Amino acid sequence: MKTKNDFYKNPPEMALFEITTRCNLACSYCVARSLVKHPSDLPMEKIQELKKSLDFFEYIAFSGLGESLIHENFYQILGIFKDKKVVIVTNGSIPIDYHRLTVYDNVDAISFSVDGATEENMKQISSNYRFDILLKNLENASKYKVNIAFNTTITKENIDQIEDLQEMVIKYKVNRFKVGLPLGKEKWVRKNFNWLQKVLKKLEKRMKIMGVDYEGPFEVKCSFNNAPIAVVSKNGNIYPCCDYFCSRPLAGNLYYSNFETLWKKSSYDKFRTGEFCNTCKQYHNSKELIDLYTKE
Q1: Which of 138, 287, 147 is nearest to 213 (CA)?
Q2: Residue 213 DSSP SS3
């Protein structure tokens, strides 16, 4: 049993860095449209300025309320972080220039948000989705030997395609398969929990057999190597987790303070001890659902 002081033993190794709030899609379950009023890219000079404050982290994951690959200077930004291990989170519908992507040999993985196994299904979630571009990106990732992860949000529209998504995972040699549930759909999840449990248990078993690293929706999120993942927004604000709906505390701003100082603040103390995480209202920390899912 965890004591008050050992929930997170380590400082963060990874920061999610939001370099843009623009996106080429408008997915049906996405929260960004309600949170971003004036989408824009973070200027290069600001990225250079924040780079010094991000030197603390070993991994930089380009992720946030926008599509990182849409930033007009994305490949130059990879050069700025050539001394870091980079993870790219993308919806997959932007063509990736793998030659430019691999110049600095610093891309640790690309995490594709894939919510359907067919173009028709993806267009139900976002009408302008380019499934052909996704498939080309996946094929090229294999050719260039870039690690691939899938992020899938299970909804009532795609739950019947889980087996087809498994086949995509196997075909494109996906290293990690992360499955989540849609925000704001608590009633649907609880109403269909027994069904979801059967689907997820079957998926978990298959991925284990195939040697794919699997993470389901009822596991503790916001963590990497026993440490909370820091989130850096486009304006330099830093948060101890990526949850936009659970009153996550603001730890500070990297334009005005270094991370070592912020890590010692009281807002981070709540994450080191687990005080904040234990009261998180999202599915992944819901004790009720975790207990139901793990019950044999």
Answers
A1: 147
A2: strand
Question: Which candidate, 24, 127, 15, 126, places its Cα nearest to that of 71?
Answer: 24
Residue 114 makes CB contacts below 8 A (sequence gap 6+) with: 92, 134, 150, 151, 152, 165, 168
Q: What is the pLDDT of residues 235-256, one digit of tens each?
A: 999 988 876 655 677 889 999 9
User: Residue 274 pLDDT > 90, yes or no?
Assistant: no
3-state SS assignment for residue 39: coil
Contact predicate 62/68, CB 8 Å? yes
Judge whether 206 and 249 are in contact, CB under 8 Å: no
Cβ–Cβ < 8 Å for 251, 15: no
* Distance from the Cα of residue 135 to its chain's centroid: 20
Six-digit token pair at 249?
């505390």
> What pTM does this model have?
0.89
Tens of pLDDT, residues 49-91:
999 999 999 999 999 889 999 999 999 999 999 999 999 999 9
CB-based contacts of 208: which residues, under 8 Å, 6+ apart?
214
Could you report how far apart the first and last alpha carbons of the chain are, in Å?
21
